[in-house]
Each structure stands twice: as C-alpha cells, then as structure tokens.
Amino acid sequence: MGMSPTPPVRRLRLGMPRRVFSQVLLMQLAIAAGVVVLATGLFLAPLSHQLDDQAMRRALAIAQTTAAMPQIAEDLQHTQPSVGGPVQREAERIRKASGAEYVVVMDLHGTRWSHTDPEEVGGHVSTDPSQALAGREVMEIDSGTLGRSARGKVPLHDSDGRIIGAVSVGIEYDSVRARLIHAIPGLFAYAGGALAVGALAAWLISRRVQRQTRDLAFSDISALLAEREAMLHGIREGVVALDRAGRIRLLNDEAQRLLGIGDEAVGRSPDEALGEGRTADVLAGRVTGTDLLTVRGQRVLVANRMPTDDGGAVSTLRDRTELEQLGRELDSTRGLIDALRAQDHEHANRMHTLLGLLELEMYDDAVDFVGEVVGDHRATSEQVTEKIEDPLLAALLVGKATVAAERGVALGVSDRTRLPDRLVDPRGLVTIVGNLVDNALDAVAGTPHARVEIELRTEGRTVVLRVRDTGPGIPAEHRESVFTEGWSTKKPPAHGKRGIGLSLVRRLAERQGGSASVDAAHGGGAEFTVVLPEALAQPDLEPALTAPAKSTVEKESR
Questions:
Q1: Which domains does the chain have, with CATH numbers?
Q2: Considering 282, 472, 509, 539, which has the largest number of Cβ atoms within 10 A of its Cβ?
Q3: What is the pTM of this model?
C-alpha cells in the first residue's frame, strides 16, 4: 500500500491583513495610540516643570516672609546660635506652619542659626550662600544635607537695610515628584478614555470604508484603478464623467479628441469647457433620452448619459460622422436613382409618343415633338448653367430639378441668381444647398401649386443663398429650434435620425464666419437665408473665367 501524501503545512504569515477594513482599523488604532502617548508626554513634561516652579516659588515666598520678620534680624544680631535660641525656635515654628522641609537662617559667614537637625545649628551651610548674601533672591533645585529639595534663598536685612545674613527655605523634592506620580493614574485614565473613543470612531469609519470599498483589499483597488485607466483610455468611445456638482472629473483620450478639448477641462462645468450649446446640454443632463445626436465642430456624435450612485453621471460619445456622411451619400444616391427613374419613365412615354406619330406617318409632328423635348431639356440645363458657373453646384441643381419634377414640385432658379466659378469651398456650398433644397421639397410635398425657388447671388466676395418654398412655413417660436441638432418634424430615415441637416447648414455657415436663418416667405411658406462672407476667391488669383464659356461656345458652334 502506498503512503498517503503528507498534507502541506500551512505557515503562519504575520503582517498587515489584506482587507481594507482591518488595515484601516489597525492604522487608526495605531494613530490614536500614538497621539495619546504623544499628548501624554507633551502634557507630563510641562507639568513636571510647572510643579517644580510652583515648589521653588513657594519656598521663596516662605523665605521672603521669614526675612521680613524684624524680630529674626534683631535676634541674629544680639544672640548666639544655639539649639534653644530664639532664632531656632522661630524658624521651626515657621517650618511646621508652612510645611517646609527646613528653614535655615544664616549670618554673613554662612553659619547656621537654625536647622531642622539641632546638631547642624552652629555649623556652616552645605550650599553656596554667596548670591543671597550679595542681595539677590535665588530659586533652585539642589541637594543638601537633607537631600534633594526645591529651595528659595533671600537676603536678611536689619532695620537700617544692611544685609546681615540670609534665609534659605527648602521643600522636599520627593513630595513634588510624588504629586507628579500621583497625577499619572488620572492622566492615564483620561488617555485610556480618549483611546477608547478613538478606537470606536476608527471602527465606525472602517465599517463605512468597508461598505464603500465592498471589502476589497488595497491591492485589489489598485488593480481595479489600473484596469479602469487602461480600459477608459483604450476604448474607441469617448467617456466623460461628471461629479455631483456637475463638473467634469474625467475625460478619456477619445472624448478629448471628439470634443476638441484637453485636460484643462477637468474641474470645469460642460458649459465652461464646451460653451453653451446642445453638446453641453446633453452632457449636463438638461436634454434626456438615449442615443442623443449632437454636433461638435464637424463631427456628428451620439451621446448616452447614465447617472451614478454618488450623484454624478457618466456620458459616452460615439463618432457618427462617417455614418452620417454615408447616410447623406445614400440619400443622394437614392435621389439620383429617383431622378433616373423619372427620366426613364418620361423618356419611355416620349418614345411611345414618337413611335405612334411615326406609325401614323405624321412625320412633321414627330419632328416638332422631338425638337420641343430636346429644347425643354436644354432650356432647363442652360437656365442653370448660365446663372451658376460652378459645375458641382450646377449639376446638383439640374438633378434636383428632375427629382422635383417627378414629385410634382416646380423647382426654379431666381432671375437674380448669379454665381461665378470662384468658390473657395464648393463642396461646402453643395452640402448647404442640397440640405436646404431637400428640406424644402419635403415641406411642399403634397401641397397644391408646390414650388421651390433658389436664389444665389454675390455681394463682393460674399455669397447670399435664399431657398423659398410654398409649404406650411415655420412658426416664429420654432425658427431657432429648427437649427438645433435632433429637432425635426419628419419621419426618421432608414439609416438613422433626422435633425442633422439644418444644424450642419448653420455649422458650415458659421465656420466661414457667416450665418443661417429662417423667416416667413412672401406669400406664405418658409425662406431660408444663408450668408457666407468671403466665399469667393479674389479674381486676380483665379484663372481666366472666360475659358469655360469659350469652350462651351466652341462646342455649340460645332
């Protein structure tokens, strides 16, 4: 039979416990005990000096009272030192009445005239009396024939004020130390009470810390913080944390990139860090909901906000710019498909008509019909290209005109329209015009005599765009709200939410130092106005503008 393996022996490991509750409790108890010991030491040291000072002052006071008695000075001058002499009797009476250890009266030679021990009367004092005999009062702790004592020495004057001796009074120092030792138990009682109160407070604080840290070890908390930092700065979503006062307390790298701010925003409110606007309202919680759309600079962001237990909140931000661009491209593609479908339908009808005319041998009518069709299409294209020389914008409006015709809307270009081919940002203007025209076509859909008119004119280097429609118009109280991200009265498209187009229009206009506004159109409907300062390049910085026109003329002449 094989021997069973010996179970491993567990070694007792001494050291700090791992739980936060235990560590905090032990540290607070150690701090409380250290404070008590330190406070006790700081209290006892001055107390000892204070008691010594009180004893010396008491001895000095007794010596002063004794030296002030004229009878002692007179007896010192007229009698001899003896055990039964008047000076010894009076000194002993004072010693017993005051509780002093000794009262010694001496002459100018340091000879004792009184002493507690009768055998010492007539002998020389054991300590130096020179200072007292010189007229100075002395307080000290010293050792003499009776041991260590607190002493007070004063000069003794006769009736004429001359120094004839000195009085030395001592208080047993052991009695002072006994008082100090007697006070120590009371001090330790107070210290013990303070330690007990500190221990109770430490226990209560530790319990609170235990609940807040969920009984984790400090190493676990440190690891969680390190993991949180790595996760927050590694994810591709922006994270913004706010405290209970609404101030930003955390920004990860992606949030800084999306919002265009840095670490200086920490400790400030969203309004202070971002400026007033929808983005600040979403982060501050003034706008509620899920997957809220907001525009920051040229970025379209999707924001979600979650409150935290401490009264703050955490907001996440996702970059939806590319998705919105794809959605706009999808809308443009869908519009192009609709335009092609409309042209195909119209072309098929015209071909059927032409075929019928030929079968009926109505050749002259067929020729007139073809000429009319080609002329209408050329008239529409020429009407746009003559007034708008930029090719991107002209192509956009020709396509929009075809879509508008299919939807039963008359899309026209104002006679005041004149736009040279000197645009600084033609793609930006295409985005603005496209959004406004689409918005106008949606507004007039289903209305009688639907019409949308576009006006593009220049004032120096400033481009002024106006898009009018015959729709229901926009109430005055909503004319600013239409430019807010997420605000729309239309049904959301398949690829996302509405309420972005007009906001981007204003953003693009403001980026160029311009403005975007809406007002009531003459005769009903809405009129959107966009002003773009310095949207045209200087003429002398551009190639000759007559070249495109010359090419067109040459083509037509051919």
A1: 22-179 (3.30.450.20), 237-319 (3.30.450.20), 323-557 (3.30.565.10)
A2: 282
A3: 0.40
